[in-house]
Amino acid sequence: MGINIGVESDGKNDNFERPVLIVKKFNADMIWIVPLTSRKHNNEYYRKVDHEFGPSWECLTQLRVVSTKRLLRKIGMTIQTDFQAVLTSLSEYIKIETPAMSGGISEAEATNIAILTP
Question: Beta strand pairing status for 30-37 and 64-67?
Answer without folding.
Answer: antiparallel
